[in-house]
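Severity: low
Component: inverse-folding endpoint
Summary: output formatting inconsistent between runs
Steps to reproduce: submit the following structure tokens with default settings.
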């Protein structure tokens, strides 16, 4: 599933091809994605894409009339291709540009979405989101305040969009391991030192993933492969039963909020 770094890399990848370009036609082959593609999206011919913004895991293509909001869901991806490229199975949306290129959305599982936001409106999907993890607003003082007397497991807490956006399962696992914090602990038990460490590590881990993804940017113009996704160097995620990379103790797995959580019983307190 694309997480925040992949979505940011998608944004960086498509921006030079889309920004300032006029939309000549919109082709929607399948309107039933996670939600029904609204009429406004179909009616974008003649509009110019002014900018491409990311909020959490949503991409916003801003035009004069409003913004298209794209979510990649579980299996969505975006590519920039010439108009003549024949559509393959699961190529649900094409945004044709006047310069002969198009933005093509491919999504086998159809958990992704194309939504619409009118000017001066905040779409419901974006209205309850916490701060961006890479912004200064996400800091240890903020995290401690949010965590105060919360009994939720710290890992589930970090994955709550109202607390901070974009810390998905992989990055929550990895960050808690690097910070030496047991993912099962109540969020409210976080100390000031731990919060400082955790915030720094989350920012580092996400920045590194975005930087790694940057090396795959050329893939956005290829017609095959999986653009925007990249192999991540992971320390503990998905490595149950393997030795801890730090102390060699066998890594354990537990379900928290229905999500697999890998941790080292020795290193994480
Ligand atoms: Zn260990």
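Observed output (run 2 of 3):
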């Amino acid at each position: 599933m694309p997480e925040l770094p992949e979505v940011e890399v998608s944004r960086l990848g498509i921006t030079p091809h889309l920004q300032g370009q006029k939309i000549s036609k919109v082709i929607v082959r399948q309107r039933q994605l996670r939600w029904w593609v609204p009429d406004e999206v179909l009616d974008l011919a003649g509009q110019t894409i002014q900018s491409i913004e990311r909020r959490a895991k949503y991409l916003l293509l801003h035009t004069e009339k409003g913004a298209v909001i794209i979510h990649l869901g579980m299996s969505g991806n975006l590519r920039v291709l010439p108009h003549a490229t024949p559509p393959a199975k699961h190529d649900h949306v094409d945004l044709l540009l006047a310069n002969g290129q198009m933005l093509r959305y491919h999504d086998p599982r159809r958990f992704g979405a194309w939504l619409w936001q009118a000017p001066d409106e905040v779409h419901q999907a974006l209205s309850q989101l916490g701060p961006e993890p890479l912004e200064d607003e996400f800091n240890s003082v903020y995290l401690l305040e949010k965590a105060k007397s919360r009994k939720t497991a710290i890992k589930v807490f970090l994955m709550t969009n109202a607390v901070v956006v974009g810390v998905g399962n992989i990055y929550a696992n990895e960050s808690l391991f690097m910070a030496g914090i047991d993912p099962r602990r109540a969020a409210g038990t976080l100390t000031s030192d731990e919060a400082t460490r955790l915030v720094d590590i989350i920012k580092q881990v996400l920045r590194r993933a975005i930087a790694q993804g940057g090396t795959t940017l050329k893939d956005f113009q290829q017609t095959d492969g999986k653009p925007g996704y990249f192999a991540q160097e992971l320390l503990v995620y998905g490595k149950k039963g393997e030795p801890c990379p730090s102390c060699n103790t066998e890594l354990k797995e537990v379900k928290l909020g229905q999500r697999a959580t890998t941790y080292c019983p020795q290193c994480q307190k």
